[in-house]
């Protein structure tokens, strides 16, 4: 995916620190010295091309409830079906296929640990696969952004 200059500047500037105001897209446009329409068009293009999955906050899970990293050892022939079922749970975010015996990795977030335990039990009952539950003990660094910079 080739990014235009505005898209690069938009991503660099607003991966962190989205304006918290009544008209955030207007504030973004002012910061990037362009029109609100250009911001919206750029975001729409990023979404259409698969470069943008969502716009929204990332909450500190320990303050908003409970969260855990989960891995499943899914037979290759079942990966697509199991991934689709996992994705259907609203508590699931970040679902990835990885090269390992434990090949499907995802994050589950809920209001409390009991909710997560019930969900993991449901996943095991429905899939016949035992979730490897890996709750975070200590966060050393969590940063979901990275610099895009100028076009190569």
TrEMBL record:
Q: Does the keyword Transferase apply?
A: no
The segment(s) forming the Siroheme decarboxylase NirL-like HTH domain are 8-50
Q: Which UniProt keywords apply?
A: Lyase
Q: What EC number is given for this enzyme? A: 4.1.1.111
Tell me the InterPro entries matching this sequence. Answer: AsnC_trans_reg2, HTH-Siroheme_Decarb, NirdL-like_HTH
A Pfam family annotated for this chain is: NirdL-like_HTH
Q: In which pathway does it act?
A: Porphyrin-containing compound metabolism
Catalytic activity annotation: siroheme + 2 H(+) = 12,18-didecarboxysiroheme + 2 CO2
The reply to whether Nuclease figures as a keyword in the UniProt entry is no
Domain named Siroheme decarboxylase AsnC-like ligand binding: residues? 66-132
Subunit info here reads: Probably forms a complex composed of NirD, NirL, NirG and NirH. All proteins are required for the total conversion of siroheme to didecarboxysiroheme.
State what this protein does: Involved in heme d1 biosynthesis. Catalyzes the decarboxylation of siroheme into didecarboxysiroheme.
Family (UniProt): Belongs to the Ahb/Nir family.
Q: What is this protein called?
A: siroheme decarboxylase
Can you name the source organism?
Stutzerimonas nitrititolerans
